[in-house]
Specification:
359 residues; alpha/beta; 13 strands; 30% helix; 19% strand; binds ligand AOF; binds zinc ion
Length: 359
């Protein structure tokens, strides 16, 4: 099948799904995914697993070679423009040219100034066809580019400003409560919603809370899934009063807990420091004061509102009234969902089986 005759977005969506798995684990590098295709068939696939490891294109080419396929004349789909200057690893443009691939397609240009918009020239000079979908007229390709931009939004912000991308998550009831009269915040959202936001923690670099949340809730701030091993926790405090026996200071991940005394530069100073340390994506999980201060300082890039279908009123959380049906009407001008912290709608996890199904 010639490329023009098939829906190539299938391959890019697979590459995006691979990249998504790397979100939160590659700092200060971008999460990137790639697949190698010939004759409409995926020969190999890969992703950038962590800083210092193979770039996605190289990982995908190695996987195809390992499975006994020749790369000659294949098409490589990669979520980000291939790098053209050697850094921690050799330049991917050189590796693609040396392998003799016929065509390279990427979803978005590299926001890193050292690589931006150089790949097309370099690859073409090596006789390789190229295509970037960032400005495609085709809506499916544009949707892929949009998703790719969302996945690297934290990297793009960090590489341009040295500041991390900040997501604020707030869970509240229909009557706008984030906790009950006793300050119980734990059970506002359902177990399913808490699992979903737990998975969110696997996609970011740092979970941030205010000292009040540590004093009051003693949260673990880890993902309850598998991928905790590089997640940091940060507490911001004005008073410096923090309970030394809190979970975040005593559990197995305590080495990865950072405390920031908020100084004259406010929270901006804290974020700047986190950016300097290489963190690209900070998820703020409470409390309300921290969210408000971040908003007031203009530091928030993305809001996630979890709206629990219940009315808490003035009683304890146990006597909240549950609601069967809620219509949520985003206010005018609203509100793009699924930006940096969610798997964009167009990527169903089901598609991750393409390779297996072909065998
Ligand atoms: C990645 N993974 O899959 C791709 C990247 O310092 P280096 O050699 O690891 O290069 C990092 C740069 O390479 C990064 O800023 C980005 O511009 C480009 N592409 N990086 O870490 C990948 N494709
Ligand atoms: Zn590269």
């Amino acid at each position: 099948m010639r490329p023009a005759e098939m829906d190539e977005t299938v391959f890019m969506r697979r590459a995006l799904a691979l990249a998504f798995r790397s979100c939160g684990h590659t700092r200060p590098n971008p999460p990137v995914g790639a697949v190698v295709v010939k004759g409409g068939r995926i020969l190999g696939e890969g992703r950038h697993v962590r800083c210092g490891a193979d770039h996605a294109e190289v990982a995908a080419m190695k996987s195809a070679t390992r499975r006994g396929f020749s790369l000659r004349g294949s098409t490589v789909y990669v979520t980000l423009e291939p790098c053209s200057r050697p850094g921690r690893v050799g330049a991917c443009c050189d590796a693609l040219a040396a392998a003799g691939v016929g065509r390279v397609v990427w979803a978005v240009p590299d926001p890193n100034p050292k690589n931006a918009s150089r790949a097309a020239r370099i690859l073409r000079r090596a006789g390789i066809d190229t295509d970037c979908w960032a400005r495609s007229r085709d809506s499916g390709r544009r949707a892929c580019a949009e998703a790719a931009r969302g996945l690297i939004a934290p990297f793009a912000k960090h590489v341009a400003t040295a500041m991390p991308f900040v997501t604020v998550k707030l869970a509240m009831s229909l009557d706008g409560r984030i906790c009950d009269e006793k300050g119980n915040a734990r059970w506002v959202s359902s177990a399913a919603a808490r699992r979903a936001t737990g998975r969110l923690r696997e996609r970011v670099d740092v979970i941030m809370v205010g000292a009040g949340t540590v004093r009051h809730d003693d949260p673990s701030l880890l993902s309850h899934g598998r991928r905790n091993d590089d997640l940091f926790r940060a507490v911001v405090t004005r008073s410096g009063r923090l309970p030394p026996d809190a979970q975040i200071f005593t559990d197995a991940a305590r080495e990865r807990t950072l405390v920031f005394k908020v100084g004259g530069e406010g929270l901006r100073g804290v974020m700047r420091r986190l950016g300097e340390l290489g963190f690209m994506h900070v998820l703020c999980e409470g409390g309300l004061e921290l969210a408000r201060s971040l908003a007031a300082e203009g530091l928030v890039d993305e809001w996630i509102a979890v709206i629990a279908p219940k009315v808490i009123g003035h009683g304890p959380i146990g006597s909240a009234v549950s609601v069967e049906k809620v219509t949520i009407l985003p206010d005018e001008g609203a509100i793009a969902g699924g930006f940096a912290s969610e798997l964009p709608g167009l990527l169903s996890e089901g598609e991750s089986d393409i390779l297996r199904n072909q065998q």
